[in-house]
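Lecture notes, continued. The same structure-token format from the folding unit now serves as the input rather than the output. Read the line below as a description of shape only.
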């Protein structure tokens, strides 16, 4: 079984200096299924909990802003890093601890907001002279690198750093990259995993899948998410409010059998679509009957989820030109959410081309593989 950073706290007690704050989520658990909150409190002076999107206990819906509170289980104060006013560490908050511990399970995809929270923690701790300890966890997608690299001018909370959509790094390795490339000089300490190599995915950890958020209930969801999350930027349902989010795609105007047939005709590697009718209980098209597809992974080794997402967008545009649309920006003068997810503005054009976009993605992914090598903590194989 792979050991995570949280499994090795008793081996590095010297890292947890002074007053300690912990940023974590419900997936922050050890190999013997104990919360990192419980375990860390036994080895240091844990004073404070910090909550990213979804909250410490996972009781906050996706995108829901929330305020400070008290954790009823530990009795510790919880400071929200997902409020209307700020998602950063304020000076007042920084004054309440000496060391910040980060223990958050990631999904290996740039859209996931925990990565941006990690970047902000690096920047804010560096500015205040605070130590940041990252308890490393494996990337469930392993060394998978796919998609275009975020353009700096498209920076947002769902695109917090110049990474491809799938970046093939652990959270500790991403922290090392940001700290060095941005010249932050944060006192960053990474507690590495044991028994991990770069070929491993979730299938090889010997661990149960603990949901990093309610929208990613299964490992298969995490595999599809880098592609089907692009649907969030459109007027189609990405499957929220169904039994299989990000594997179910549809809208009231889609004819399920026809769309499924055309998608399968593309012969995309590793995936099969079956026609489906569904009524979301939440989110887009709540209470409305939708036609669409249910996506099934046949071979995850050859699946290219980001390319799948691009093909889905193109097919929806082609088959339903009068109904399908990209959602407008949330704020006047802002970028469409699809552009924020994609990390570029090509989808804002009416004439974007699938082969050109995928060729660009492949080129940028190859370049990123070389860029990330110096930050890797784990070997290619044992």
């Amino acid at each position: 079984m792979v050991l995570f950073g949280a499994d090795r706290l008793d081996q590095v007690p010297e890292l947890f200096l002074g007053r300690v704050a912990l940023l974590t989520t419900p997936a922050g658990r050890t190999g013997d299924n104990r919360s990192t909150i419980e375990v860390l409190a036994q080895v240091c002076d844990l004073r404070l909990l910090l909550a990213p999107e979804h909250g410490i206990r996972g009781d906050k819906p996706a995108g829901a802003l929330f305020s400070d509170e008290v954790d009823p289980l530990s009795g510790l104060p919880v400071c929200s890093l997902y409020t209307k006013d700020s998602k950063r560490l304020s000076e007042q908050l920084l004054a309440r601890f000496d060391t910040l511990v980060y223990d958050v399970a990631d999904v290996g995809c740039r859209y996931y907001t925990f990565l941006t929270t990690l970047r902000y923690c690096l920047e804010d701790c560096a500015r205040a002279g605070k130590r940041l300890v990252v308890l490393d966890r494996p990337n469930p997608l392993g060394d998978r690198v796919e998609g275009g690299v975020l353009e700096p001018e498209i920076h947002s909370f769902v695109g917090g750093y110049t990474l491809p959509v799938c970046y093939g790094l652990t959270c500790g390795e991403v922290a090392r990259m940001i700290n060095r490339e941005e010249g932050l000089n944060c006192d960053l300490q990474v507690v590495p995993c044991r028994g991990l190599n770069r070929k491993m995915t979730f299938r090889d950890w010997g661990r149960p899948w603990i949901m990093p958020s309610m929208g990613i209930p299964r490992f298969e969801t995490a595999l599809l998410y880098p592609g089907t999350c692009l649907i969030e930027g459109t007027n189609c349902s990405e499957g929220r409010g169904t039994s299989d989010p990000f594997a179910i795609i549809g809208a009231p105007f889609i004819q399920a059998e026809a769309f499924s047939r055309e998608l399968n005709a593309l012969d995309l590697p590793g995936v099969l679509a079956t026609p489906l009718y569904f009524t979301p209980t939440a989110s887009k098209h709540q209470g409305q009957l939708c036609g669409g597809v249910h996506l099934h992974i046949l071979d995850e080794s050859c699946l290219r989820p980001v390319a799948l997402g691009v093909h889905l967008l193109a097919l929806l545009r082609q088959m339903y030109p009068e109904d399908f649309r990209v959602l407008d920006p949330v704020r006047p003068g802002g970028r469409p959410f699809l552009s924020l997810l994609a990390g570029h503005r090509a989808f804002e054009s009416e004439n974007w081309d699938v082969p050109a976009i995928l060729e660009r993605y492949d080129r940028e992914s190859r370049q990123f593989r070389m860029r990330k090598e110096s930050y890797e903590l784990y070997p290619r194989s044992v």
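Point for the exam: The radius of gyration is 21 Å.
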